């Protein structure tokens, strides 16, 4: 007897579980049972699970009967002619949807040639195993799975033309590639995506070689002359918003040109780009400290006592200004009414970004890299045809990562550029390596993909031939201008007196335990004194009882509160440590300290 569960609820038992499951599937194929239901037999427990709950992931597979695919030649001809749709194939039972549970009872063939009488289903196409995102990686059957996952993640981070109405949208920040191109080497997934309408990369001439040491590890060398011609140029857009917030008691903010009589008025030049309505004008180039939207807020407390006890209102300047390291050109200004019914001003800033040292790039195969140097065209190696690569990529990162598809794409891109036709790089059924090499040979090039290159500094031929071709490179949105952080002196926290946190606030970068170890191992131990004394302060230690006191005790000629001694030693320590001692005292613990002169031990 087999127990039957419908959506995890017990509904009865059947005498023959296998026969029941077979009959269920036959009735589902005929349409007598809705196709939304999946069935699974657990033979160990003799339990039958039927599931029709929403939200399950189900994959379409071609049904197989007695080792023969139901998707026959006749069916294929009708599909090509447009007589049968995908939905018709599902209704006729030629294609079945299986969930993760029913897959346990299925035996799926990868290819039609692999079919045996034991098989129950057949993959629609081998490409289906990759999924939507991973299917965008060309020649993905030449890669290992872990690298494919990285490859499709980098594609998601690429800078491109994501939408044409970007001026009217409200994303916080975005990147747009100025002249995106369609890849020369692509899979059919790109057609499904409509990628030619919103591409996200450019086809670059790439040389795979080591050059001047600037492309070691994952470094990338770019042609500065190509950059000046517009290579991988992008714009960074950032949105700034300010609204007239309403407060209890009928008070509200006012967007306007602030008057000099208000509290917190900035320097007059900070407001120089504002129009009469308090909003910055279009096309103006602005930088750190400049005000975008002038705003006046009512006082935090309705009345404040000023002067001779008079009650007066004090409005406060609450203008929206650019923070540290922010700059750009005012690209769009919109005045709207937000969901709360308040007036809201949105200012869109545009910053022009050319590739610079430190910017991140990647191919579609998970080969990420940072620009290590840019060279003028005259300082780059060139081929006997006078071709100068746009980028030079290190060969050392290919063998260990087994990204054979990366090398294949360079070869295929070269064929595509010479033939003027896009190369089909679908896994398993795209153009083969042999076809590509034969085509390259027919164009009069070396079928191996290598070319004779010349050293720019001597003009002599390089001893080794260099692998050169075209590769679709993605500019990622990890850019130096958004991440660079440096500080000398600057703002500190009120509580711990340590540097403030965060790039926008002019904060510092923390050195932790491991960084400390790195400094010591490099023999730079004296640097620790400087790095770890950001909150250095002075304190007094009672020579009698070891009480740690503030320096003002000595200044005001006070005595030790514990032992009434007036003899103190001055010590230097971190303010955070002094704060910790005070917190211990608040719990009734009073640590004592002993001092001795380190020079006269």
Please, could you describe this protein's structure?
The protein has 601 residues and is α+β, with helices and mostly antiparallel strands. It folds into four domains: 2-131, no CATH class; 149-165 and 177-233 and 357-475, DNA-directed RNA polymerase, subunit 2, domain 6 (Dna-directed Rna Polymerase Ii 140kd Polypeptide, Chain: B, Domain 6); 235-353, Beta Barrel (OB fold (Dihydrolipoamide Acetyltransferase, E2P)), CATH 2.40.50.150; 536-600, RNA polymerase alpha subunit dimerisation domain (DCoH-like, Alpha-Beta Complex). 19% of the residues lie in helices and 26% in strands. A six-stranded mixed beta barrel has the order 12-28-13-26-25-32. Strands 5, 6, 7, 8 and 9 form a five-stranded mixed sheet that branches. A five-stranded antiparallel sheet has the order 10-14-24-23-16, with no helix packed on it. α8 (404-419) packs parallel to α9.
Portion of residues in beta strands equals: 25-35%
The beta-strand count equals 35
Find the structural class using helix and strand composition: alpha+beta
CATH class of the largest domain: Mainly Beta
Number of domains: 4
**Order of the strands making up the biggest sheet:** 12-28-13-26-25-32
CATH 2nd-level architecture of the largest domain: Beta Barrel
